[in-house]
Amino acid sequence: MTGGGQVPSLARAQRRARVRGLLLLGPALVTLGALTLYPTIWVCWLSLQRRMPIFGVNRFEGLGNYVFLATDPRFWKATEVTLLFTVTSVALELAGGVLAAVALRGLHAGSRIALSLLLLAWALPSVVTAKLFEWLYHPTAGLINFALGGIALNWLGDPRLALPGLILADVWRTLPFVAVLCYARLLAIPADIYEAAQLDGAGAVATFTRITLPLLGRILMIALLFRTLDALRSFDLMFVLTGGGPAGTTETLTVYAYRSLFQAVQLGLGSAVGVVVFALVMLVAWAYLRALRRQGLAA
Amino acid sequence: MGVLLVALLVVILPGCGRSRESDGPVVLVLKHAKILGPVDPIPRLLAEFEAEHPGVRVKAEVLPWSSDEQRQFLVINLEGGRPGFDVMMLDCIWVPEFAKAGWLLDLTPGVSRDELSAHFPSAVEAGTYRDRIWALPWFMNVGLLYYRADLLARHGFSPPATYAEMLEQIRVIRAAEGNARLAGYLWQGKQYEGLVVNVLEGLWADGTSLLDAEGHLFPDPGRAEQVLRFLRMLIDTGVSPAWVTAADEESTRRPFGNGDAIFLRSWPYAADLFERRESPVRGKVGLAPLPRHVAEWPAPGSTGGAHLAVTRQTRHPVEAMELAHFLTGPRAQRAMTASGATKPTRMALYRDPELVRNSPSLPRIHDLTLAGRSRPVTPYYVIISTTLQPELSAALVKVKSPARSVADARRRVEFFLRDLRE
Amino acid sequence: MRVREGAVLALFLVYAWPFFWQLLTSLKPEAELMVLPPLLPSRLTGEHYRAVLDQSVMLRALGNSFGVGAITTVLALVLGLFGAYGIARYPVPGKGLLLLLIVAGTAFPQIATVSPLYLLMRALDLRDTWLALILANTSFALPLVIWLLTGFLQEIPAQLEEAAAVDGAGRLRAFRWIVLPLLAPGLASAALLTFLFSWNEFLFAYTFTATEASRTVPVALALFPGVFEVPWGDIAAASMLASVPPLVLVIGLQRYLVRGLLSGALRE
């Protein structure tokens, strides 16, 4: 009687708990559904349309937009710029971030200030960073040309210099993220490991490669994932700094999508490019997490 | 605490929506871009209008400075259905687009043939779509050639009739002057509408056009490539400095105004600025039509300017139309020309003695404007132009060959406008 | 350790100098802006700040950014806290998958959702309003908040609440008096990050706003008016103003900010 009588009430309690949980989660799920999930489905639908709001054009097209993109030089150029930007920027951020963290680790005084400066660069609105670098890159009144000895390089106007200039600005802005992560991780490493290495006669480089880097391994993988996804989606900096110019040399897929959407008023084509960016981001995330899982690093 | 939160939201959220309109005297809202020039003529004109129309008040609101932002602002508000303004200033290239989108009030009933004939024909044409008048011409622009009359006179040259002449004149003058800073020919090559205008003028000089009768881009691609190659050649041979590929109106006007260039392609607004008291080139600047490629083919300058239109959703159509008529009328245009840097669309004003006294180049500008040609009057002009700009720029900075740029531009425009003809 | 000292010096230079230069630019007289050398101005002037604050656009934009940021943060925190508590403490069906989807939501590119959101705002006639921005910002703030708070909640052992239940306290009271104080630092981190991202948000703000009625600071800065030439001094002054909240956040609340960053990263 006791055993049989307890089971139904337990099941009921379980059900009640489940319902309560769903009730608590409900509002958030509804909001997300309306603002994130629904638009994601909608954009896929939009990408199959020919849609020009100003002229009231609204027609189903099928895969027409994608067919156009497949042979569109501007799309492939944007893809190339996006990939180049992502790979270079992330590589430099990771390398720079690790070095910065290692440099900061030894500091006793002033690490607080350094950390604040780094975080400030990361926390600034990207528009502020863009305007900051636009001024630094000014051909005649800019600090960078001045520091280079007065050479009048046209950073943002020369097709060969614009992308490096953009990457530099982005690395400046995002390196702190990696640096802070690594710094926190390094702080957790007990000092005796380094002392032991020193006793064993290891030099700075050997200490770095044999001890520091492997211990940073996991956090670097995570930083790599975050930063890659962010770089692929990056929009603000290139849009404000160069507008995608000159002549499309800094036009990433995001800028191309935006211009198609709101300048050429082609909501269908712009949505198609947006879907491509979405697919790219999801693909990278999935491939990355799978690789992590294989290495047994994932939870 | 939760109750407080909900109360907070209830109070704030309604405020997040639109504000209600209040009743009272007829209030018209005029949206216009800042009028260049020493004095802003608009407030006084509006005061005159209010005096003549008791019970009507006009609020003038300034649009953002850049043309793109003005358009984005207007489009977003007009699309939303409740624009909150009645009369607006439009760049002439937006009129057919806005008319087709159904945002403008048809002004044809209130305009007579006589009244229209007082304006430049190309200005009237720019405000016409499907044989209806959608906007009234307000001020006028035309592309023309500024030249250093003193330098040319020194070598016995008259203003060049063809590009070949101009290049030769530049060569001789530069060799004689020995001034390394003296540029030959300045024009606008930045990736914006100005670049399209410069290329357009090149196309016309070469005997071709931007669109054919059906609205297809570059009916003669070979000629279009030739125009781009010519512009590149100007930079390669040093006739134009390399920075013209990033130059707009102001960044070319200043060097010419400082005496650092022989020729400048620009708009009439600069003429008065060159004649200011402290200008280094005062009294040395002449105006001429753009050079031709072939002596027999005309090379018209591109006309431009602004129109005034009335929103279709205005609650006071009669008063709004009257405001538009007033501001584009002879008295208002006269006041604007006298105090600003704008040129009128009414042809008679160019021979007005008082205006000519203050701005002696007016008659010249009149003739040049009459010989000018308007950009294609099509609702799709902005789409075409914004698609063209990166392609043309790519050809100029040598990221793409002219052939590729022309081909890519055609392909894109075809895709955007397929079966969307007028 | 000369190398290390050198590296630190380089780091300071690279990260301190640009701010300092922008600050200097904002205080340089107009006539001395475009000439280099000299680096330092002959005198400091407030003309740029005055110019920026005189035109009400920037002030209005600051107000808009604060309002939108504050409301977004409150909304995201409330919805996120309920949601995170539901996931962390209750046997919600499919919770693993749900959490994964929510976390995936933080990776959604804004450029993909901007066109449907644009149409949505247009249909609801919400363009140029605070609400449009609040909703758009919530779309990416909420997944982040849920993710962070779920993690923080999972760190707090459920036994604490169960012990309180044994002592006779209801679920709500246990939450209020036991969990909330422990969760406070996590809440602070989530709130700070949300406010910061909302303040910095550009793409949605640029697309959905049209006038100073709703324009936020990044958009106002990007659309900074210049009559003839670019007003670098005024832009620098406006940039300084736009950087104040991030500056305050970083200096005063560094601990919480870093904690938020770390916990987000250490959790997958």
* Largest sheet geometry of chain C: none
Question: Largest beta sheet of chain A: what is the strand line-up?
Answer: 1-2
**How would the global form of chain A be characterised?**
flat
What is the CATH level 1 assignment of the largest domain in chain C?
A: Mainly Alpha
Structural class of chain A: mainly alpha
CATH topology of the largest domain in chain A: MetI-like fold
Which fold name fills CATH's third level, the topology of the largest domain in chain C?
Answer: MetI-like fold
- 3D shape of chain C: globular
CATH superfamily of the largest domain in chain A: MetI-like
**Tally of DSSP helical segments of chain A:** 12
Q: Note the beta-strand portion of chain A.
A: under 5%
Q: Mind describing the biggest β-sheet of chain A?
A: 2 strands, antiparallel
Rg calculated over all Cα atoms of chain A: 25 Å
What is the CATH level 1 assignment of the largest domain in chain A?
Mainly Alpha
Low-confidence stretches of chain A: none
How many domain modules of chain C? 2
* Ends apart, CA distance between termini of chain C: 37 Å
